[in-house]
Amino acid sequence: MINDVAPFDGLGHFLYRSTAVEGLNATDLEAILTVARERNGAAGLTGCLHHEDGLFFQWLEGPAVALRPVVEAILRDTRHRDITVLNEGQLDRRRFQDWRMRFSDRDQASLLDWFATSKASTVDRGDYAGGVVAFLQALAI
Ligand SMILES: Cc1cc2nc3c(=O)[nH]c(=O)nc-3n(C[C@H](O)[C@H](O)[C@H](O)COP(=O)(O)O)c2cc1C
């Protein structure tokens, strides 16, 4: 019998942008990534985190029931603020299956510069979230 109050247990995703609190340094970032990779590995979550000019962009994906508590912890985390959800919902397949949490910063590539290039701006102008995901995926290849 179909139980329509059962929680959705397919794949879900969560994409946001936030502002790192002032003074957040490389050691703090390492600590965030260590905990993130450990917890994501245990929960079957994958994704990536990009840090640039004091901004975070993060994509998280995995079983929806496992994703929810981690997203709630991230939303409560005082190491960043002004969290803007860019996209969330169901997912047909993982985009970052090999990454418990891939990390990139301006040394690898600049999202802000990437947005300014002609290809990215013609394809993704008006679809900010789509542009962010395309950038993150291009880095993870
Ligand atoms: C920018 C940012 C990204 C984070 N990403 C993750 C993540 O991918 N997975 C994770 O488990 N915790 C992540 N965290 C840490 C969580 O906010 C939280 O501290 C951690 O999951 C421990 O949860 P707890 O505070 O409920 O014990 C992130 C924190 C920040 C500030």
Automatic annotation (TrEMBL):
The record's section on SMART domains has: BLUF
The UniProt entry, under SUPFAM superfamilies, shows: Acylphosphatase/BLUF domain-like (SSF54975)
The record, for Pfam families, names: BLUF
According to the entry, every stretch annotated as the BLUF domain falls at 11-102
Q: What protein name is recorded for this chain?
A: BLUF domain-containing protein
